[in-house]
Amino acid sequence: MTAAAPGGAGTPRRRGRPARTDAGSGPGARERILAAARAEFAARGYDRASIRAIAKGADVDPALVHHYYGPKEQIFAAAIETDFAPALEAPDVIQAGGPDTLGERLTRFILGVWEDPATREQLLAIVRSAVANETAAAVFRDLVTSRLMTRIAGELGVPDARLRSELAAANLVGVAMLRYVIKVEPLASADVEQVVAMVAPAVQRHLAGDA
Questions:
Q1: In 12, 38, 169, 177, which residue has its Cα 20 to 30 A from 118's Cα atom?
Q2: How many other CB atoms are there within 10 angstroms of residue 4's CB atom?
Q3: pLDDT digit string (tens) for 141-185?
Q4: Angstrom distance (rounded) from CA 51 to CA 39
Q5: Residue from 111, 125, 209, 134 nearest 167 by CA
Q6: Helix runs in 117-191, H state only
Q7: What does the alpha-carbon distance between residue 46 and residue 136 come to, in Å, rounded to a whole number?
Q8: What pTM does this model have?
């Protein structure tokens, strides 16, 4: 007489990958997915990151990643918004004082974000993805445009505010790329206060409407 299979007679055997535990899709799953996505994009860049790897890092099924965040470009947008959050406070810096020191305040703030080792690594990961992949670049561009440049322009109160804000950003992005990403000397090793003193006047001319 043949013994009954575990689980009772007539119970079909499960095939394929075992189901995730209930904890995998329970409370905190969305946060775990976002944390795993940030780690995956930082480690592998946009091109090499995958929904499957993000799901594995969060201990959830890949379908749950799609459920919460959609396709890869959308979870990338969510991940970089979190990583770029310190820089998104720049409009508040503009409000924090008078127009005469606007360029210095913004320059000091942006370079300060890059000087912090924790935020620098996050920004480097974003920049590497944006440089290497057009989809990632478009996602990053949309974030910078909608969440940063539009708000900065709205705080200026000068003619051509949007163009001026972008020219100021071009100065600051160029300095950041050469100092922190490409590490061109002597800029890469220069004292940050010296860099602020030399860059701020150009940023001030753009933002304050004196040029």
A1: 169
A2: 10
A3: 888 888 888 888 888 888 899 999 999 999 999 999 999 999 999
A4: 12
A5: 209
A6: 117-132, 134-144, 150-156, 161-176
A7: 7
A8: 0.74
The first and second tokens of residue 142, run together, are 């949309």
Q: pLDDT by residue for the chain (211 residues), tens digit each? A: 444 444 444 444 444 443 444 445 556 899 999 999 999 998 889 999 999 999 999 999 999 999 999 999 999 999 988 888 888 888 888 777 788 888 999 999 999 999 998 888 888 889 889 888 899 999 988 888 888 888 888 888 888 999 999 999 999 999 999 999 999 999 999 999 999 999 999 999 998 875 4
Q: What is the distance between the alpha carbons of residues 176 and 168, in angstroms, rounded to a whole number?
A: 13
Beta carbons within 10 angstroms of residue 148's beta carbon: 18
Distance of alpha carbon 87 from alpha carbon 82, whole angstroms:
10
How far apart CA 122 and CA 37 sit, in angstroms, is 12
Dihedral of the CA atoms 100, 104, 107, 113 (nearest 10)?
-120
CB 94 within 8 A of CB 105: yes
What's the one-letter identity of residue 178?
A: L
Q: How many CA atoms lie within 13 A of 47 on its CB side?
A: 8
